[in-house]
Amino acid sequence: MHDLIAVGAGEVFEKYWLPAIQKSEKVRLIGLVESRGLRLMHLAKIIPQSPESLFGVTSTERIPVDTTKSAIILVLTPDHYEVVKQVAEMGFKNIVVEKPLVSRDHELPLILELAKERNLKLYAVDMYLPKAFPLAAVLGAVSSDDPRLAFLNFAGNNLAPISAYLGDIEGVSVSVIEGGDHGLPSLDRRQWLEKDPEVGGMLRDLGTHAFGPLVNARLLGSDAEVCSATLAKFTSDRSGLIPVATKKDVEMYVSTQLAHGGIPIHVALGKLPQKGGEWSLAVRGSKGMFFSSLRSGQPGVVLAAPRVRS
């Protein structure tokens, strides 16, 4: 059983992480760090644990000194680097961070150096396993005894040999587009996404959803070639998009053509004024196709021509 401390216990924690933690047989919640006292009081009422087994404090400095340093720290605060730095300096080694790993470009080398210096096990994640994992399983990027396979339900053939049905990968396309009710209202609640060039923009907000499955499935790496890229921002009345012109502009839409290992990869992500939205991933193979909606609870599908037995 692994002990876990959540730092930042807002709506995301309550809606997504807490139910998963409570269902897990391998993780035990032992502490909450939340600056809002009323929020702590609310969680104390809905989490069925005794005060002796669950502490609640308003800052990381108040985490009890006798807390085991092997505990997992789950960082769900708006900014991550400073929190990771604080808990690392307190001796914690196992740190899980809600995406994105950092909020500012200059923080990336700092957090990588911190992880190396403090020997951290540092993971940047999202409540994203149902979306990202099927492609990795289909392409054989996980072992047959990987415990995460228990999250998947199979229809038809077992996943173990399915990578053979796709054949050689010839192309990949990913779209993570939010429009109308699927995205624009959230900008009113999170105006920094559109207004703050330092921490805003869609590459950080939606990039994990678009690139995560590809990296996880080993279809994309740091040596990928950027063949073309287009960035756009909203017009002042949000009726359309115009090209990003300066570093002070915040990208609301990104379209890019990449190449990795000789495979062309097209990615489009962002927010649009129109209604609806599109979350989809398609992988073309020489023998078959893989499709996924990239939305939790919806299936991934493999289509392939039937094998001809000799």
Topology:
Elements: E1 2-7, H1 11-23, E2 27-33, H2 37-46, E3 55-57, E4 72-75, H3 81-89, E5 94-98, H4 107-118, E6 121-125, H5 129-138, H6 163-166, E7 169-179, H7 184-189, H8 192-195, H9 202-216, E8 225-234, E9 241-243, E10 253-260, E11 263-272, E12 277-285, E13 288-292, E14 300-304
Helix pairs in contact: 3-4, 5-9
List key phrases describing it:
8-stranded mixed β-sheet, Dihydrodipicolinate Reductase, domain 2, 9 helices, alpha/beta, Rossmann fold, globular, single chain, 2 domains, about 25% helix, 14 strands, about 300 residues
Structure description:
It is built from nine helices and 14 strands. It has 310 residues and is an alpha/beta fold. It has two domains: 2-125, Rossmann fold; 130-304, Dihydrodipicolinate Reductase, domain 2 (2-Layer Sandwich), CATH 3.30.360. α3 packs parallel to α4 and α5 (129-138) runs parallel beside α9. The longest helix is centred in the last third of the chain and has 15 residues, at 202-216. The mean pLDDT is 86.
Structure described in brief:
The chain has 310 residues and is an alpha/beta fold. It has 2 domains: 2-125, NAD(P)-binding Rossmann-like Domain (Rossmann fold, 3-Layer(aba) Sandwich), CATH 3.40.50.720; 130-304, 2-Layer Sandwich (Dihydrodipicolinate Reductase, domain 2), CATH 3.30.360.
The CATH topology annotation of the largest domain reads as Dihydrodipicolinate Reductase, domain 2
Estimate the helix proportion, in percent: 25-40%
List low-confidence stretches: none
Cα shape: globular
For the report, how would you describe the main beta sheet?
8 strands, mixed
Domain count, please report it. Answer: 2
Number of strands: 14
Strand ordering within the main sheet: 9-8-10-11-7-12-13-14
The number of helical segments is 9
Provide the succession of SSEs. Answer: EHEHEEHEHEHHEHHHEEEEEEE
